[in-house]
Amino acid sequence: MPHIQQLSSHVADLIAAGEVVERPASVVKELVENAMDAGATAVRVEIRRGGMGLIRVSDDGCGIAPVELPTAFLRHATSKLRSAEDLGSIGTLGFRGEALAAIAAVSRVEILTRPKGAQSGASLHLEGGVPGPVEEAGAPEGTTVTVRDLFYNTPARLKFMKKDSAETAAVAGLLQHLAMSHPDISFQLIKDGAEALHTPGDGKLESAIYAALGREFARSLLAVEGRGGEVAVEGYVTMPLQSRGSRSMQVFFVNGRFIKSQLLTAALEEGYRNQIMKGKFPGCVLSVTLPVTAVDVNVHPAKTTVKFAREKEVFDAVYHTVLDCLSARGGAVQVPRSVEQVVLPRQDFFQSLDAKSFRERREQADSQPRSAARPAWDSERRSTARVADSAPPASGYGRFRDAGGALGRPPASAAGPTEAETSPAGKPEKPFVPAIPRQSRELPEQQTMEPLREEAPWRIAGEVLRTYIVCESEEGCVWLIDKHAAHERINFDRLKASRTAPMRQMLLKPAIAELSREDAAAVLDNLPLLEELGFSCEDFGGGAVLVREVPADLDAGETSAALEEFAGTLRGGGTLDEKREELLHTIACKSAIKGGWKSDVSELRVLVEKVQSGEVRYCPHGRPVAVKLSRYELEKLFKRA
Length: 641
Description:
This protein is α+β, with helices and mostly antiparallel strands.
């Protein structure tokens, strides 16, 4: 039987470090939050190799007294709490006093600090949590913490680290959130010697959003502000027409702390109900302010999850603030036109249409009356009319001319004047030498084709809501078939069974997908997989991905939404085959016909045939494709059985 014994302090520190320090971004988060609590107005973060080689955080805060430096790296040593009652009203970002001790336990740390007003500073070096002597040193006002060789003494943790680009993206995403939570602080990120982020720190949230998330996202935002009881909500939300393919652009702050909350997400999306497309998600940067006693932040080691004392009040405040803003806009919001969207004066000259616009124009053309169709061979006869009509027609050709009159062509007497009538007098006529013998131009007599007899054991009764096909089988059952789900399954099975690379379409104008830093890193780390699936992508800087080619099945307008979904899949982990299958799900969904589209009867017949044969039963996401109602179940609904 194993004996119970107390662990050594070193092992205990390593275990505690595992709860706080998961990756380089966790180290940056703890150090930057300490700088913000110290009253800094400018924070500079420098990383190398994604933070695994070097992390340096500098600030201009209040600094640390030299005599308190060794104490700062002890477990549960903090300047932010004094008693148990303080846990009920936490107003700072950090409070546990575990971060510095946990970081020092798994790395080599050097701290250089100078309190405001002091003549000189002090430095301290720690290795594996063991401190050296405190030494006097020259330093600017504030604190600089340098962390090297993260996890050098815990090799088991190193194998769980991701690529340097992914770790760099995680650090960049973290600083984006911190910069927007405190727009009055200037943040600067230096990665491998190059500046990747710099916010002005002018106190304006819109400036921080512009610097952190980019111009395109900032231009799509609407300002919101509201209050419900003691809960105040302010910030920005996206226009309904500028929705996203994922929730990666939903950013929430509670009392200046970045959090992830299903409650706030549900309140935001409830405000967009009936104003946003299905499968799309709004973006936002919302700050919720409420009394510190009404929220508990001490529920997660990373402090990214909180509990609200009055959840309904918080939900209502966010919901009504968003809803009031969208209602004040009058429902549909006009998208600002960019230079690229200016329409040319000639509407019919070399237009570039997406698939949706092409379908709409084709439907309009189909609804307009048409003249009688001209036979394909009519153009050939018209081109030789000037010389051929002057000669007596051969028997086969004359018979064919008579048939042409039955198809809507004018009779020979009504045709235009012959060359003999229009040629100038005295001009000799050139002999006619046909390029193709007349016998080869003779076509067989037209035959009336009888309609094919219906042999399928079902018939299509119609389509309702432009989404569901109503079908009756020979057994007397009524089927309701979701055409989008059925087509999605057909596409997925075809893509999965294909042993060749999918056909590609090169975009006339490359598409730029504006993604978050983490999403962009996930896409760029998996370029070979995307290349295999028909995408040609490259880094465009600042979280943007440039797309030059997409699969032929995919609508070019769905490129950004597809990449956002791809990024969520790729960040979720899993094997290469699992990732490939999930990406095929997305391509099959984006390339399938959508509910609400007008479909041709021939298209519906193909879908019904696949479902009735049993080849298609469920969509790739597991939803049923068809619902079957027997005659008894139908009569029971009308109280006839």
